[in-house]
Amino acid sequence: MTSTATAAPAASLLRFATAGSVDDGKSTLVGRLLHDSKSVLTDQLEAVELASARRGQEAPDLALLTDGLRAEREQGITIDVAYRYFATARRRFILADTPGHVQYTRNMVTGASTAELAVVLVDARNGVVEQTRRHAAVAALLRVPHVVLAVNKMDLVEYAEPVFAAIAEEFTAYAASIGVPEITAIPISALAGDNVVTPSANMDWYGGPTILEHLETVPVGTEQADAPARFPVQYVIRPQTAAHPDYRGYAGQIASGVLRVGDPVTVLPSGLTSTVTGIDALGTPVDVAWAPQSVTVLLADDVDVSRGDLIAPTAVAPATTQDVEATVCHLHERALKVGARLLLKHGTRTVKAIVRELPYKIDLTHGLVHEDQPGELSVNDIGTVVLRTSEPLPLDAYADSRLTGSFILIDPADGTTLTAGMAGEAFAARQNPAADSAAEDEDEGWDF
Question: Which domains can be identified in the chain, with CATH numbers?
């Protein structure tokens, strides 16, 4: 007998990232959030108190709870992405504290790529600055569903409501213009703890939620649940035992949507069709499964399915293509150039790819200005790329699915991850599109 899946666990999970310009107080906010929510172990707090005392500080520097690298502690800045895990009675959290320096833009892309919410900090004394706009643009680029504007250091502007209102208005207008879907503005003082976990007595003019209250109540999981079902196959299970002589299952993690027994499905890129006859979740047959569950899917027909294939409901199956246009963030010191021969990893599938064209690079600091035909993308650059792949790929548009619309480009020589890609146009339509590149590849195995 099969069981029917019920509601998700009560303690839901929120992945969120913090971002902001240098010295806006990201690490202090995270430290305050962990400290005031009772998520810091005693020995961790003692270590921070000792480190703060050695630096001549009277009070514990809560930023040290997240600035884990020695270089970060010495310089008082965030360099790497610091991940922290904590929980309250209402929700579990995975937090990515990302760097503020422009040369670490790629780190913010990494930290925010899986986030459902981004907290962008602004120093109330400085207002919206260039790096604030850059981080808002990255949040829009990565389709982060929820953005919180945390106007920090309100204690240094005497908790003045007009200062907060002016910053919130400027940021909201800019963020909305580049496609940020939802913005919540909260005035805080991370150092003093105002509106981080507990409401501030110094800002009685503000009636909205604290940072933690908003994190605990913002809707999560809706993007994966609402998207069409996508099931990348990771492993084919064929025990071939006396008890299961004909068993053939396809194991993997549901990337999005819901799969049900009886669904007509298409296997991509082959285009073969069948019907779901069974779903096993942790060894138990179920009638329905949803993202991000790991399951084994059984099909009615003995079709050719292998690792790297994608199973999707026939009615909403994605089209396959060998010509990929995508927005990318280049992550490596080695530049990305036209004609480069790379590996493209999409879900569980890896294929060869050639860079045919780099149509433009995006300047995030001046209203998303396009620089046409840049020739190459350097580390931290964001732009568009046109690729030709050796095999068809079932790519969704990144705007429709962050998981099945994303990919990475890999150096085939040493396996280094070079570039993160998001299929389709991230912002506006191309400006001044150039003719297709005439780059050809005559090397054996790369002419496709």
Answer: 12-220 (3.40.50.300), 227-316 (2.40.30.10), 321-423 (2.40.30.10)
